[in-house]
Amino acid sequence: RQEDFEIIDKNQIPSATELKNEEKEKAAEEARWSAPILSLAKKASENLALSYGNALKSAALVGFISKPVSNDNTAKTSVRYHAMEERANLMNMMKLSIKTLIQSALSLGRTLDSDFPPLQQFFVVLEHCLKHGLKVKKTFIGQNKSFFGPLELVEKLCPEASDIATSVKNLPELKTAVGRGRAWLYLALMQKKLADYLKVLLDHKHLLSEFYEPDALMMEEEGAVIVGLLVGLNVIDANLCLKGEDLDSQVGVIDFSLYLKETQDSDSKQDGGITAVLDQKHYVEELNRHLSCTVADLQNKIDCLEKTNSKLQEELAAATDRIGSLQEEQQQLKQQNELIRERSEKSVEVTKEDTKVELDTYRQSRQGLDEMYSDVWKQLKEEKKMRLELEKELELQIGMKTEMEIAMKLLEKDTHEKQDTLVALRQQLEEVKAINLQMFHKSQNAESSLQQKTEAISSFEEKTNEMMSSMKQMEERLQHAEKARQAAEERCNKMKQELAGRLDTCRQQMSQLDSKCSTLEKELKSEKEQRQTLQKELHQEKDATSLLKTELEQMEGLKKELRKLQDEKQQLEKVCEEQEQALQEMGLHLSQSKLKMEDIKEVNKALKGHTWLKDDEATHCKQCEKEFSISRRKHHCRNCGDIFCNTCSSNELALPSYPKPVRVCDTCHTLLLQRCSSNSS
């Protein structure tokens, strides 16, 4: 199988014997050379020479010698052996190129350009590694074999690589897939993510199998080793310019002279020192990242704790102030409780005497109030019944009023009809007269009922006045009771002075009085409850009186409504008389209107030749021929039936077939006006 990468002629490749002779001649000068680089270069050169010779032999054998069937297994084993040798050679060359690139970049100490020779050789070797074992894809143009196909998968597997793919596709200078693949590698190296992207590809080998054969370098373990070596390139800073470079036509030839030159390092120990320094640098950078993250987190936590601490201190100060104020309030409340107890003991003695007097007066007043309440309740029931009857009569009158309004509307419509409708109008007038007579009788009945209600209202007002007078008498009695209570208090004071000498005798009787006090307290509680119930009843009676007042106001409103209805009745009677006169005049004018109707019929016969156009049939205005749209709407002419825009049909006229003025186009408007003027003349 022919290899995918170009190799220099055999004469240019240094053989093993030549290398040995050069080593013997320059043994003194080559003391500073690095031993690992020489060994790797020797192995790479020998393996490449052997693979190239074997490839030539296999090509010669395939071209001229016919292979027997029995030698299939030997051919397969030889192919696998060649693939293994190629993978080993490419991996060794990759190690050499990465090592020389890192050493030369560190010795320079600056960002690398695209003209840097070790960097160019690194991309050549990497390209050979990616081309190894690629499958040939047949197209209409011919066979296509490029390594940009697997690199396009990275965009799907890793969304971070989408920027690289878009920038590569947007470059107008790149016309071939090889050029796009080289540009992709340049951009990935500048981002320091070349190893990460290739690792993502190796993790999805089932996708790579579409592009590579099973024995390819990217499908075997050597691919993972190369990805591990590429991690060391993250130390290098590269600034590669893609514009102006011809990436499509570059020839990828490996230059072995770079790997056989004298290096700047004195010993192999220094190589190990550089790698150790690089490892330490990576370790320190990672430590710095972790420490910066932890420091930021700790600082945020400290800020939060300081805020919470300040809040807690403020809450503590507020709590201590509250505790002090509550303690002071507690002491004040204790003092107030003692004073209240003393006052309550004194007030209990006074209230005992007061309640006795109030009970007597209350019992007397309650009997009179009960009698008044029963009378008022009966009157209320009677007035409610009367009010319901009045409401029913009002509803009937309102219904009659609505019927009258409907009849009036029908009369207005029927005046525009012909002689046949005159008979119906007269019948309706007779019905209206009968209804008016009924309304007149009902209004008389309503006036009589109103007089009865006014009499009932006057009697009710007299009763309310009596209630008010009784309330005033109750208030006078309460004032007398208060005066008696004050006289009793004065007597009690005198009695206390007299009882000061009789304290010895009273102490013996205290035991008896305590038992009596307990019974009196119970009676007091019951009397207080009765007093509360009586107060509630008084409030209820006041509410009832307020309701009665509102009902009186409603009755006055009903009177006003009755007056309004009477006024409306008179107006309706006047309207009926006017309509009768109008009907008589209509009878005179009907003969004249017949003649006009015949003229109008002739006009309609002339105009009825026009058909009523549908909305779908018209797309343009018939007069101005402008196209209809959302702003320019369609309008029918009620005379000719054609469709016009708003400007061409803004006129309105009263047609014989329509009682009200309707929309007419400009032409019909002028024509109808001319005919009307000729008829009037």
From TrEMBL:
<keyword id="KW-0254">Endocytosis</keyword>
<keyword id="KW-0446">Lipid-binding</keyword>
<dbReference type="InterPro" id="IPR011011">
    <property type="entry name" value="Znf_FYVE_PHD"/>
</dbReference>
<dbReference type="Pfam" id="PF02759">
    <property type="entry name" value="RUN"/>
</dbReference>
<dbReference type="InterPro" id="IPR047331">
    <property type="entry name" value="FYVE_RUFY1"/>
</dbReference>
<keyword id="KW-0862">Zinc</keyword>
<comment type="subunit">
    <text>Self-assembles through coiled coil domains to drive ELVA (endo-lysosomal vesicular assembly) formation. Interacts with BMX. May interact with SSB. Interacts with RAB4 and RAB5 that have been activated by GTP-binding. Interacts WITH RAB14 and RAB4B (GTP-bound form); the interactions allow endosomal tethering and fusion. Interacts with ARL8B (GTP-bound form); the interaction is required for RUFY1 endosomal location and promotes interaction with RAB14.</text>
</comment>
<feature type="region of interest" description="Disordered">
    <location>
        <begin position="1"/>
        <end position="26"/>
    </location>
</feature>
<feature type="domain" description="RUN">
    <location>
        <begin position="113"/>
        <end position="245"/>
    </location>
</feature>
<dbReference type="InterPro" id="IPR017455">
    <property type="entry name" value="Znf_FYVE-rel"/>
</dbReference>
<keyword id="KW-0967">Endosome</keyword>
<dbReference type="GO" id="GO:0030100">
    <property type="term" value="P:regulation of endocytosis"/>
</dbReference>
<dbReference type="GO" id="GO:0015031">
    <property type="term" value="P:protein transport"/>
</dbReference>
<protein>
    <recommendedName>
        <fullName>RUN and FYVE domain-containing protein 1</fullName>
    </recommendedName>
</protein>
<dbReference type="GO" id="GO:0031901">
    <property type="term" value="C:early endosome membrane"/>
</dbReference>
<feature type="coiled-coil region">
    <location>
        <begin position="408"/>
        <end position="589"/>
    </location>
</feature>
<dbReference type="InterPro" id="IPR047330">
    <property type="entry name" value="RUN_RUFY1"/>
</dbReference>
<keyword id="KW-0479">Metal-binding</keyword>
<dbReference type="InterPro" id="IPR000306">
    <property type="entry name" value="Znf_FYVE"/>
</dbReference>
<keyword id="KW-0175">Coiled coil</keyword>
<dbReference type="Pfam" id="PF01363">
    <property type="entry name" value="FYVE"/>
</dbReference>
<dbReference type="GO" id="GO:0006897">
    <property type="term" value="P:endocytosis"/>
</dbReference>
<keyword id="KW-0597">Phosphoprotein</keyword>
<dbReference type="InterPro" id="IPR013083">
    <property type="entry name" value="Znf_RING/FYVE/PHD"/>
</dbReference>
<dbReference type="GO" id="GO:0008289">
    <property type="term" value="F:lipid binding"/>
</dbReference>
<dbReference type="InterPro" id="IPR047335">
    <property type="entry name" value="RUFY1-3"/>
</dbReference>
<keyword id="KW-0653">Protein transport</keyword>
<keyword id="KW-0863">Zinc-finger</keyword>
<dbReference type="InterPro" id="IPR004012">
    <property type="entry name" value="Run_dom"/>
</dbReference>
<feature type="domain" description="FYVE-type">
    <location>
        <begin position="615"/>
        <end position="673"/>
    </location>
</feature>
<dbReference type="GO" id="GO:0008270">
    <property type="term" value="F:zinc ion binding"/>
</dbReference>
<keyword id="KW-0472">Membrane</keyword>
<comment type="function">
    <text>Activating adapter involved in cargo sorting from early/recycling endosomes. Regulates retrieval of proteins from endosomes to the trans-Golgi network through interaction with the dynein-dynactin complex. Dual effector of RAB4B and RAB14, mediates a cooperative interaction allowing endosomal tethering and fusion. Binds phospholipid vesicles containing phosphatidylinositol 3-phosphate and participates in early endosomal trafficking.</text>
</comment>
<feature type="coiled-coil region">
    <location>
        <begin position="288"/>
        <end position="346"/>
    </location>
</feature>
<keyword id="KW-0813">Transport</keyword>
<dbReference type="InterPro" id="IPR037213">
    <property type="entry name" value="Run_dom_sf"/>
</dbReference>
